[in-house]
């Protein structure tokens, strides 16, 4: 995050792909890497990412139901949505805490219950579902702006379609992930026989599908990192260092959280029937923490590239904004309000002078006249 006014237009920022910058992370010096790692930890705390993750968790809860509706509707166009959901839920049993699964499973199954109406849902419901689910993407974009220390300068008519498009891409990628997970066992065998690939291809797919799923998720996170903030970043890399670290960190944290919940925690005794919901919210919070940490790492890697290239980025990242029209309008309104406040103060002072009221003294409560105040100035405070 920048240490100066975040509304600065950065008109003097060099091009995102300035030739002075190292081309890729392996080109960074060891000293630069140490600087990046330390700065990432500091900025993660300075940008209050714990609080940002909590806000994102709130938006994620609001977006969960419409996002699931859109996801199952897309699945219903290409496969048996209910069967795919059953396989995904079975896979999740070994990944997420049981209390989280107890909250997620009914939501997914209820959304899958309308699989027979997939076409109708796609036409009538998915648009509204995407609009609601895009609230999380918008909140994530605002968090990314804080990470990069820049104000949101894109007008609403330009920003909102971008967030809707990112939400649609996220739903499609999620559908591909679900489809890849569901395409296993008898389903994969049936597909292999239908296309004439035989059992060997099915065996290869059962091994290769997990790297494919991981790659799809990393690509989705990289899209979130690249598109949502209001900064023109260097040429997009479909697999960013921050995205990889975020996903791996999320997997490790989820596994550790599952072990903690099932072994040491006593949420049932503390929260009773709300235990599953509390665990689900904590898991979402951990997920958003991982995403924000990866974003901070990518931002500090860009700072390291700029510093090693001789660009003065120690105080703020030298990346130009994608748009600054909304920022300029807000700043103009802010200056107008400041000027109005100044006129109020000056008019009040002029009225007081015209009424013959000195600046010092106090009113006598008996007749309301102002009388001199002989106390030392320090005692008047």
From TrEMBL:
Comp. bias regions, Basic and acidic residues: 315-381
Region (Disordered): 1-25, 312-381
InterPro entries according to UniProt: Virul_fac_BrkB
A cellular-component GO term for this protein: plasma membrane
Membrane topology: Multi-pass membrane protein
Coarse class of the protein's main subcellular location: membrane
Membrane-spanning ranges: 52-79, 118-141, 162-187, 207-227, 239-261, 273-295
Subcellular location: Cell membrane
One Pfam family, short name: Virul_fac_BrkB
UniProt keyword annotations, A-Z: Cell membrane, Membrane, Transmembrane, Transmembrane helix
Superkingdom of this protein's organism: Bacteria
Name by which UniProt lists this protein: Ribonuclease
Organism per entry: Promicromonospora citrea
């Amino acid at each position: 995050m920048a240490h100066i006014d975040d509304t600065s237009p950065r008109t003097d920022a060099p091009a995102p792909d300035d030739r002075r910058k190292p081309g890729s992370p392996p080109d960074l010096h060891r000293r630069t890497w140490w600087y990046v790692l330390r700065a990432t930890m500091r900025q993660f705390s300075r940008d209050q990412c714990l609080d940002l993750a909590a806000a994102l968790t709130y938006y994620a809860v609001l977006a969960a139901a419409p996002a699931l509706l859109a996801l199952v509707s897309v699945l219903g166009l290409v496969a048996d949505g209910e069967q795919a959901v059953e396989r995904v839920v079975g896979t999740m049993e070994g990944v997420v805490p049981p209390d989280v699964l107890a909250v997620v499973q009914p939501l997914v199954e209820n959304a899958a219950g309308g699989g027979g109406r997939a076409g109708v849902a796609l036409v009538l419901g998915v648009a509204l579902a995407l609009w609601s689910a895009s609230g999380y993407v918008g909140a994530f974009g605002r968090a990314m702006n804080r990470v990069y220390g820049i104000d949101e300068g894109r007008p609403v008519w330009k920003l909102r379609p971008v967030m809707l498009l990112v939400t649609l891409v996220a739903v499609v990628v999620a559908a591909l992930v679900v489809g890849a997970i569901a395409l296993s066992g008898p389903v994969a065998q049936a597909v292999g026989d239908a296309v004439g690939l035989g059992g060997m291809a099915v065996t290869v797919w059962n091994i290769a599908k997990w790297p494919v799923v991981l790659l799809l998720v990393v690509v989705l996170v990289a899209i979130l990192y690249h598109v949502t903030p209001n900064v023109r970043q260097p040429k997009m890399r479909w697999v960013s260092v921050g995205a990889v670290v975020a996903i791996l960190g999320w997997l490790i944290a989820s596994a550790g959280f599952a072990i903690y919940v099932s072994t040491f925690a006593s949420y049932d005794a503390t929260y009773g029937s709300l235990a599953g919901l509390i665990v689900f919210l904590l898991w979402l919070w951990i997920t958003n923490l991982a995403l924000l940490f990866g974003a901070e790492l990518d931002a500090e890697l860009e700072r390291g590239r700029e510093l090693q290239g001789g660009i003065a980025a120690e105080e703020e990242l030298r990346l130009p904004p994608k748009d600054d029209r909304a920022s300029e309008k807000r700043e103009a309104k802010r200056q107008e309000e400041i000027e109005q406040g100044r006129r109020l103060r000056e008019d009040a002072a002029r009225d007081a002078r015209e009424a013959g009221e000195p600046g010092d003294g106090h009113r006598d409560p008996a007749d309301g006249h102002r009388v001199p105040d002989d106390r030392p100035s320090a005692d008047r405070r």
